[in-house]
Amino acid sequence: MARNPERRAALLDAAIEVLADEGARGLTFRAVDARAAVPTGTSSNYFTDRDQLLSQVAERIFVRLTPEQGAIDGALAPEPSRELLVELMQWLARRMAAQRSCYLGLFELRLEATRRPDLRERLTEVLRSDLDENIRLHLAARMPGDADTVRLLYFALTGLLLDHFTVPGMHDERALDSLIETVVHRIVPEG
Question: Please, what is the angle between helix 117-140 and helix 147-166, to 10°?
Fold first, then answer.
């Protein structure tokens, strides 16, 4: 199996784009090779099978979606408050929108995981780790609310972004930032 980490990352990025544009059914080694503009057969030198490719795509999505540590520290620097949580959730939604292909790819992986137990196991592990880290950061920053508050915000933002990316006219009467503010004010205790 080939060991060029830059080429592997480029192939995984191409796979994310294929997932976002064509769905899981369109994710083939040939499609990834074409999207990455590499010779046919290159992907099969890096991934033993489609399941391994799908699993590594999940990990790559979270690498791309995770902000740098300095950005997190800076965002958590102000005094903890419900208003700061509104700003952080809006910032997070903008990050997701800027990485639209990653987020759509993640939706596709979630659907594919319903049919592939190994992918479901790996995706659950990756998503759970991400949620656990968000809970840890929330509590360490002494933000209002508890672990369940973070879980509810996660569920709400996931649903809002699903609608935002898949049926953008669903909430056209209200901007995403305004919806996020309402969600945070309804879920997060004051003070």
Answer: 120
Rounded to the nearest 10 degrees, the angle between the axes of helix 100-113 and helix 82-98 is: 90
- pLDDT tens digits, residue range 27-64? 999 999 999 999 999 999 999 999 899 989 988 998 89
Alpha-carbon Rg for the chain in angstroms: 18
Q: Per-residue b/e over 22-53, b at no fewer than 16 CB within 10 Å?
A: eebeebebebbbebbebeeebbbbbbeebeeb
Domain-wise residue ranges, the chain:
51-187
Q: pTM here?
A: 0.84
CATH topology of domain 51-187: Tetracycline Repressor; domain 2 (1.10.357)
Distances (CA, A) of 34 to 26, 39, 54, 109, 149: 12, 8, 17, 20, 43
pLDDT digits (tens, 9 = 90+) for 104-123: 999 999 999 999 999 999 89
176 three-state secondary structure:
helix
The answer to whether the CB of 144 falls within 8 A of the CB of 191 is yes
128-141 exposure pattern, b = at least 16 Cβ within 10 A, e = fewer: eeeeeebbebbeeb
